[in-house]
Design goal:
single chain, about 150 residues, mainly alpha, 5 helices, transmembrane, transmembrane helix, membrane
Length: about 150
């Protein structure tokens, strides 16, 4: 039979062996967890960056659509289709209202530049000189680069 001293020594040896195996494994687990958190953060940052990029592209597409509607207005004026041009211009102003506070156009084109009421009135009266105002407005839209 073993003496109490041998039993205590055996228990201490088991505890020491356990700790020798446990401590490195625990440290490795913690460093792996930290690495996983860093990777997760990097992925989140990359996704957020792509989301911002996608939003910017969507705004550019929307701006281009608005500019194209204005171009179609000019084409209809050239064809002397003032009623269709008026409809296109109204569509342009509706789209512009939703877009005008966007960072692409903010402070570059104002409602005063649009001259909505004046242009609508002249289109309704089928005045050919409205073409110059539409061209001026189109030039302002084309001057915005992004």
């Amino acid at each position: 039979m073993k003496t109490p001293f041998q039993i205590i020594l055996l228990i201490v040896a088991f505890v020491a062996a356990f700790l020798i195996g446990f401590i490195p494994a625990h440290l490795k687990f913690n460093s792996s967890e930290e690495a996983a958190q860093k990777i997760e953060q990097a992925c989140t940052d990359q996704i957020n960056s792509k989301d911002v990029e996608i939003a910017s592209i969507k705004h550019k597409i929307q701006f281009t659509k608005i500019r194209d509607i204005l171009s179609l207005t000019l084409i209809e004026i050239e064809k002397k289709n003032y009623g269709v041009a008026l409809d296109k211009f109204k569509l342009f102003t509706e789209e512009w209202e939703q877009f005008k506070n966007n960072e692409i156009a903010k402070d570059k084109i104002t409602d005063a530049d649009i001259k909505r009421d004046e242009i609508v009135t002249e289109l309704a009266q089928s005045k050919p000189q409205i073409k110059d105002k539409i061209i001026e407005l189109l030039e302002k839209f084309h001057a915005i680069t992004f």
